[in-house]
Automatic annotation (TrEMBL):
It comes from Parastrongyloides trichosuri. It is found in: Endoplasmic reticulum membrane. PANTHER family: GPI INOSITOL-DEACYLASE, NEGATIVE REGULATOR OF VESICLE FORMATION-RELATED. This is GPI inositol-deacylase. GO terms for biological process: endoplasmic reticulum to Golgi vesicle-mediated transport; GPI anchor metabolic process; protein transport. Residues 81-276 form the GPI inositol-deacylase PGAP1-like alpha/beta domain. It comes from the Eukaryota. Coiled coil: none annotated. Gene3D superfamilies: alpha/beta hydrolase (3.40.50.1820). The lineage of its organism: Eukaryota, Metazoa, Ecdysozoa, Nematoda, Chromadorea. It is a multi-pass membrane protein. InterPro entries: AB_hydrolase_fold, PGAP1-ab_dom-like, PGAP1/BST1. Keywords: Endoplasmic reticulum, Hydrolase, Membrane, Protein transport, Transmembrane, Transmembrane helix, Transport. It is an enzyme of class 3 (hydrolase). Its EC number is 3.1.-.-.
């Protein structure tokens, strides 16, 4: 009879089996929500590469990329007059991934008939694996310095500094090159990195990696603009892509991208290349270390529309009647897109437009959403819809694995909920029964929905203040009194994935814990602890 009883060991096995199936189902279900809206680059002409510089010992090359008449002219004349862009592929990646960047830059400059063009160069690093080898990274860094100096010698007169685009681990290789070369620091305007873990290596296998990251993080002269794709980037943990001497942007928050991106999609997502055209057209000093943050905020965190200033007497505006405010009060204004006048203005000596955002991909509507500032007068476009949201109207939520449901009406115009900070490991999913826009904002992170679904998380441990969740119904439905429902829950499967990504170097310790629960075998457990001790000493 006793032998037939289910023991603790059997119960734990059954529990882990059930939880495991649940997690797998949850992850599979969540994959349906991961959709790209990155603009894909199409090439209607034959992409071509020509070798300019080589290192035969290591089989490294520097290519020029081009298409059609432009490429033939470059090859025949060997005259380089364009804005120099250097693309560096990631771990074991080919140089021909530069074609997405090169093609769109060439096509757009030709279609716009602008008085400038780009020269796109691509480094070929023999498709070497470099993720786990410090020596290879340093060798790549040395070649990049030498080859870029050679490219510089091809210009009789170079009017722009170099812009370098590094994908994945190659962003690290180039930062090493920058830290070791004053010439590069003097001749590179800024660096764009795509899915690069600057804070620390995810696999701190030896002390060499820790020392290397510590050394290169002392370099601050050249602005580094880091893009990450969020949970969908299977190779780079987003919280590691920020860097103390640069700027970090999430594709999920970028204007009209509004989606996570996998590791390779970051390269061909053509919305990221707006920055290069802004740089080409800069006649002043917008891209200096002191001013570049304003340019980046405009390009990646607003509509980019530049509105004129107005007098407070202009009849197109109306003063908002605002009583005493708190720091948690908000003003929301939305209206049809009008490039001549902004939706919301603050009054100083004149009316200056606040930052606004597109509501939809078709750019039909723009809106402003700002915390109210004390002792500031606000004016809004009289064709707009607006709403003041007081702090006591913000509803506090306590999400769990089970869905939390809240109702709202289209006529509300906007609803705001507070999300408590519990851990950066936790991943949340929000859905609505209609196609309302969903926005999450925390101290360090922002995410905007695609369709009626939003998956988000807090950025890291420093993102430790409560976040805000905004639900904005479509403005064409404000007269509809229909009641809609918002649901929020913790996604268990994605939370497990994020825990693993954040704690990847602690996997041996996790294995020990699992072994203990499954086996209760002291010999196996001892071996795991010895293995863990060795890994810990190597970290």
């Amino acid at each position: 009879m006793v032998n037939n009883l289910i023991g603790v060991k059997d119960i734990l096995r059954i529990l882990y089996f059930v939880v495991g199936i649940w997690i797998i189902y949850d992850i599979k279900n969540c994959k349906n929500y991961f959709k790209h809206s990155c603009g894909m680059t199409s090439m209607y002409r034959l992409p071509q590469f020509q070798t300019l510089h080589n290192d035969d010992k290591n089989n490294y090359r520097m290519y020029i990329y081009g298409e059609g008449n432009y490429f033939r002219k470059i090859i025949n004349t060997n005259i380089f007059e364009g804005i120099p862009i250097i693309y560096i592929p990631g771990n074991r990646a080919p140089a021909d991934m530069a074609r997405s960047i090169g093609s769109i830059l060439q096509n757009k400059t030709e279609m716009r008939n602008v008085p400038y063009h780009f020269n796109v160069f691509a480094a070929h690093l023999n498709e070497e694996p470099s993720t786990f080898d410090v020596k290879t990274l340093k060798r790549h860094a040395k070649y990049l310095e030498d080859s870029i100096k050679y490219v510089d010698s091809l210009y009789k007169k170079r009017n722009h500094k170099f812009v370098v685009i590094g994908h994945s681990i190659s962003g690290i290789a180039f930062k090493i090159a920058l830290s070791q070369s004053k010439w590069l620091r003097d001749n590179v305007k800024f660096v764009i990195s795509l899915g690069t873990a600057y804070k620390e290596h995810q696999f701190k296998i030896t002390g060499d990696f820790i020392n290397l990251w510590r050394e290169m993080n002392t370099m601050v002269e050249v602005p580094i603009i880091s893009f990450h794709g969020g949970l969908m980037d299977e190779n780079a943990e987003e919280s590691l892509t920020g860097n103390d001497d640069g700027f970090s942007y999430n594709t999920q928050s970028m204007d009209r991208v509004w989606t996570m991106a996998d590791h390779n999609c970051l390269v061909w997502c053509n919305q990221l290349q707006r920055l290069l055209f802004e740089y080409a057209e800069d006649k002043g000093d917008k891209f200096s270390r002191q001013n570049i943050d304003k340019v980046l905020d405009k390009i990646f965190n607003s509509t980019t529309i530049e509105y004129p200033v107005f007098s407070s007497n202009d009849k197109r505006f109306k003063l908002l009647n605002i009583e005493e405010t708190s720091k948690n009060d908000y003003i929301f204004v939305i209206r049809k897109t009008n490039k001549n006048i902004g939706p919301l203005y603050q009054y100083y000596t004149t009316l200056k437009a606040t930052k606004d955002y597109f509501y939809d991909h078709k750019m039909t509507y723009t809106y402003s959403l700002d915390p109210l500032a004390n002792k500031i007068s606000y004016y809004y476009d009289t064709t707009s819809e607006y709403k003041l949201i007081k702090e006591d109207e913000i509803v506090a939520l306590s999400p769990s694995i089970a869905s939390t449901k809240k109702n709202y009406r289209n006529s509300d115009k906007i609803r705001i909920f507070s999300i408590p900070f519990l851990s950066p490991n936790i991943v949340y999913r929000v859905t609505t029964t209609d196609y309302s826009k969903i926005i999450f904002k925390s101290k360090l992170n922002q995410a905007i929905s695609q369709d009626n679904i939003l998956i988000f998380n807090f950025f890291d441990q420093d993102d430790n203040e409560n976040g805000k969740l905004f639900i904005i119904p479509h403005p064409e439905k404000y007269n509809d009194i229909k009641e809609n429902r918002m649901e929020i829950n913790i996604e268990l499967g994605l939370t497990v994935i994020r825990v693993i990504k954040l704690n990847i170097t602690s996997i041996p310790f996790m294995l020990s814990f699992i072994a203990m629960l499954f086996s209760f075998n002291s010999n196996i457990l001892t071996k795991f602890f010895i293995f863990n001790f060795i890994i810990f000493c190597l970290r």
